[in-house]
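Task card 7
Instruction: Convert sequence to structure tokens.
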Amino acid sequence: MKSRLKAFGLHFTGSATVLLLVLGTLYLGWYRWPGWYLTGVLHVLPVVVGVDVILGPLLTFVIASPKKPRRELARDIGCIVAVQLVALGYGATTLWNGRPLYYTFSEKELSVTQGIDLQPEEIALARQSNPGFAPHWYTLPRWVWAPLPKDEATSKAIVESAVRGGFDVTAMPRYFKPWQEGLPELRAKLTRVDGLGYFSLAQQKILHERLKEYGFDPDAPDVLPMTGHGIPLLAVFDLETLRIRALLRAD
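Output:
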């Protein structure tokens, strides 16, 4: 039993260390609040944690018999580690492809743009015409304004594409502009929680209570929805500086 526990402990420590390094890097670089919430990545983590930190060490505990030849034991543990690496690779790749790259203001909402939302041709166009906003592998999340282009035909085509479930201007960094330039338009779009179509009546009630808890006026026209995967957040702005004071959950 002692040898099994020792093998389990070593395997658990090694697996947990590697997993923490990978997830910690992704979290600190890209998935800090509100990134993890808006991208809906939590469904990936149980799979990775389950295989790498729970199942792998448990299997090692089961097979680590002191009577087993070293070569056979090494082979078995090697197979377990290989499965763990596949699971870790799947999780890390999924998280990397879905990492938040932009938090955008466009039209009447804030939203998150993930790496998976950007087509290679769009990235190429951005590097040619708007290099300051083109993404690279090392790009960290940034806040931008994503206005529709001034050309009416182009703007109409983008809107129609978005309505059909295609790509919106928030996935076209060639049109992005500095966040500060969009603040006058953002100010004009600020609204109240009541009647905000992004939230159900029950969610609006929850948001009313949370606004009061944080000391905000629930009737003030100082909010916008922030969309991603799942239930949107409510962004509360300072009406003087237009800085975001809070991002509130409605669940």
